[in-house]
Amino acid sequence: MNYEEFNHFCGSFAGTSHVVQWGNSDVWKVGGKVFAIGGWSDGSQAAFTFKTSNLNFDFLSDCEGYKPAPYFASRGMKWIQQVETSGKLDDDLKYYLSESYRIVASGLSKRRQRELGIEHLAEPRS
């Protein structure tokens, strides 16, 4: 996945907004809360950062192509950075970005969810 594909995918979720910040990174938010970051990597290699469940954080921290996200993970937050961007993990990335969106959006107040038209959020997918 490249940054253009990343931005298109993240923009497909309801109630999202996009800003460029933190060293020219593409930052995606729902209800003003960050759920995905494109960029913000060591060097010129593409990287995608997202929030995870505790279980996925533990699992992905030990998987090739992923690492605990700089800054976030060092502060105890469950964020992962995918640094393998050859395309072989694109389907996985779409799943984890979807889950990150769901986790963050589910944490919004019910009122805010209604305002954004996302009160129908489902339970985690298996």
Automatic annotation (TrEMBL):
Q: Which InterPro entries match?
A: YjbR, YjbR-like_sf, YjbR/MT2646/Rv2570-like
The source's superkingdom equals Bacteria
Q: From which source organism is this entry?
A: Vibrio toranzoniae
**PANTHER family reported for this sequence:** CYTOPLASMIC PROTEIN (PTHR35145:SF1), CYTOPLASMIC PROTEIN-RELATED (PTHR35145)
Q: What is this protein called?
A: MmcQ/YjbR family DNA-binding protein
What Pfam families does this protein map onto? YjbR
